[in-house]
Specification:
alpha+beta; Helix Hairpins; D-amino Acid Aminotransferase, Chain A, domain 1; OB fold (Dihydrolipoamide Acetyltransferase, E2P); 5 domains; five-stranded mixed sheet; 21 strands; globular
């Protein structure tokens, strides 16, 4: 029976069973089988059916319950004040409808100003901390809202949670909050997992839950968990507090970590502005959020509004668009990159997730496909967080068709049919054929990309066409293209040819470091390219250097050094150097001594388009003067250069941290003098 069934009795029973099953998997076993968004759809459908058929409502329906019963692994804890869940809204209309219900519950006109606190909804695990006479005596999970699990030993290992409150703390303080795993810690864990040939963790929330509910506290301690406090439970002997905002401020004074990204508002547009801002900036944070929580600020009004059996009427969660969804895995293909690395990827039934429609997702490598055991025909969970490449997390085993065969990694390159090789102690498999068509195309695209030679217009389709027409076979051929022949190709008009030729000509003067990056040498990246260009001064010296000479440079390790030396020792690299010389490329490195180091130690962020600088030339101008050009704004940022169409997240961060924002004219003066002068960008802000 599917949800298209017309019999509400059957469908309601089916939904209740599914939701109860998923509640146990999520809350008790820390092994959710479906993403939150899929679970929310089940709950919304059941809620709608129960409202349409009140005669079928039952007291123990999952729509009226919180979480799941506590497991027998830990001792039970009776909550002195129930830990409720939150009702959800998914768009501005639903949020507006909730404020109307709040006004009616308070018996005021809907236009009457009511104070609300807007906070981030942390994607973690709800937790209760109990302090008696200032000492932490208990940490407990939410459980079913009335009874949770005693995980005090594990909680004591979370370094940001104070074991002792300041002198004068009340007799009893119960703090509600969220334990989470910082994104940086999560990524480090996954790198270690992959290096050990173990399965990657699915997401920070699930990993935090599993870490928190370990029987061995030393495992919990090793994970780097953190905590945000967001609510008070039982308080005995505390100060008189009138608002939720006052309560949060008091928690901060007690030494509890309280999330700083909160705002008091009095109107629906202000609420929407808060949720919109964090929809755009959610990935600026080092922790995951899945929405915002809006709460009536007055504690007296909260008491007046009261609660349902599962959620307070004075609070509402606003859910951001989901970053995990399920879809069908149609097939698994293997792509060959510029270094020959063979990477499996999933071909998916299109699904809208993380703000865009996804049809392709990475599977990392052979080991990860095997460990995850995803098979063509499976229903799989797909994750896409912001600009991150979509990833298949794993299969929904309950929906696997019977007899589905495991996928086998190919033994031969899908492009050139040569055998694939997996080096000892490596997680990846490679095509080692240097003239493999896929390798050649990927290498040329990479060379022409913005991070290297920045040849605008030479994208995937153009490169493929030029290879097909035998106009180029490697990156060196770009500088001897027969432009008359290009002009004779269909879809290559005069303007197109002129623009592409001009872009190629402009790239001849790109910095030597950009040329080195474009070569795609294995293990070798932008930082190493700049070090080599600056140290050796020209391409001939780099090509002639031994691995020991390269490794002697501070910041270049032996693996990179050997890789660079091996590359330039090859005949194909020597042929490229000849082509670069014939093409009159810039093969000279920067003369660092001639450039005054006026930005020594300063971090300058550039956002938007500048008239007189490309993105890379602006970065080079900063670095050549001793400065740093990080990709994000932080407290250490000295100034943010604002061009046309700047990034909203960087502007917002600069505003929040009060980092000076300067225009292009001030940027030019900064490069000359090292002095930060506020221009139009800063005056507009003031």
């Amino acid at each position: 029976m599917t949800k298209e069934a017309t019999d509400p009795i059957t469908r309601i029973a089916e939904l209740r069973g599914q939701i109860a099953h998923h509640n146990l998997a999520y809350h008790q076993q820390d092994k959710p089988e479906i993403p939150d968004a899929e679970y929310d759809l089940l709950v919304r459908e059941l809620t709608a059916l129960e409202e349409a058929h009140p005669e079928l409502a039952v007291p123990d329906s999952p729509t009226g319950q919180v979480g799941a019963p506590p497991s027998a692994t830990f001792a039970p804890v009776q909550h002195s004040v129930p830990m409720q869940s939150l009702d959800n809204s998914f768009d501005n209309d639903e949020l507006t409808a909730w404020t109307g219900r709040v006004a009616r519950g308070l018996e005021v006109d809907e236009g009457t100003a009511i104070g609300y606190m807007c906070e981030l909804k942390i994607d973690g695990i709800a937790l209760s901390l109990r302090y008696e006479n200032g000492r932490l005596v208990q940490g407990a999970t939410r459980g079913n809202g009335r009874v949770g699990e005693d995980i005090t030993a594990n909680i004591r290992t979370v370094s940001v949670i104070p074991q002792q409150l300041p002198a004068g703390a009340p007799e009893v303080v119960e703090v509600r909050g969220e334990v989470y795993l910082p994104v940086a810690k999560f990524n480090a864990l996954n790198e270690a997992q992959e290096a050990a040939g173990l399965p990657r963790y699915a997401n920070p929330r699930n990993t935090a839950a599993g870490s928190l509910r370990q029987k061995d506290p030393t495992i919990t301690a090793s994970r780097g968990l953190a905590f945000w406090a967001y609510q008070l439970g039982q308080v005995t002997g505390g100060p008189k507090l009138n608002t939720h905002e006052e309560a949060l401020n008091w928690l901060e004074r007690l030494g509890l970590p309280v999330n700083p990204e909160r705002r008091r508002v009095q109107s629906i547009p202000e609420m929407i502005d808060f949720t919109t801002q964090w929809h755009e900036r959610r990935h600026d944070l080092d922790y995951e959020i899945d929405g915002a929580v809006i709460k009536v600020d007055s504690l007296a009004q909260q008491r007046q509004l009261g609660s349902t059996s599962r959620a307070p009427r004075w609070a509402m969660a606003y859910k951001l668009p989901p970053e995990e969804r399920t879809t069908k895995l149609l097939d698994i293909h293997v792509s060959i990159g510029r270094t020959g690395k063979a990477t499996p990827f999933a071909v998916l039934e299109p699904i809208f997730v993380g703000g865009s429609t996804v049809q392709i997702a990475t599977l990392h490598n052979d080991d990860q496909v095997r460990i995850k055991d995803v098979r063509p025909g499976d229903t799989v969970i797909v994750r896409k967080a912001g600009d991150v490449i979509p990833e298949v997390l794993g299969p929904v085993l309950a929906e696997r068709p019977e007899g589905l065969a495991p996928w086998e990694f190919p033994t031969h390159c899908p492009s050139c049919s040569q055998p694939l090789e997996r080096p000892p102690d490596e997680a990846h498999t490679f095509c080692v054929n240097p003239v493999c068509p896929s390798r050649q195309q990927s290498q040329i695209e990479y060379f022409a990309g913005r991070g290297a030679m920045d040849i605008e217009g030479m994208g995937e389709m153009v490169v493929a066409r030029f290879i097909q027409e035998e106009l180029i076979t490697d990156v060196g051929d770009i500088y001897s293209i027969d432009w008359d022949k290009v002009g004779q190709l269909d879809r290559f008009g005069e303007t197109t040819v002129q623009n592409l030729r001009a872009a190629v000509d402009a790239s001849r003067q790109r910095p030597l470091a950009s040329l080195l990056i474009g070569l795609g040498i294995r293990h070798f990246g932008p930082s190493g390219a700049e070090l080599l260009a600056s140290h050796f001064g020209n391409l001939d010296a780099i090509a002639a250097a031994s691995a020991d000479e390269i490794a002697a440079i501070d910041g270049v390790g032996p693996v990179i050094a050997q890789s660079v030396a091996d590359y330039f020792a090859s005949g194909s690299a020597q042929d490229l150097v000849k082509k670069f010389k014939k093409g009159e490329l810039n093969l000279q490195g920067p003369k660092k001594a001639d450039v005054p180091q006026v930005l020594a130690g300063l971090a300058i962020v550039v956002t938007g388009t500048l008239e007189g600088f490309s993105r890379d030339s602006a970065a080079e101008a900063i670095k050549s003067r001793g400065g740093k050009n990080p990709g994000s704004v932080s407290k250490k940022t000295a100034a943010v250069v604002i061009g046309e169409n700047p990034g909203a997240s960087k502007l917002g961060k600069a505003e929040d941290l009060e980092v000076p924002m300067i225009d292009e004219a001030a940027f030019v003066r900064l490069l000359q003098t090292g002095e930060i002068e506020t221009g139009e960008a800063e005056r507009d802000r003031q």
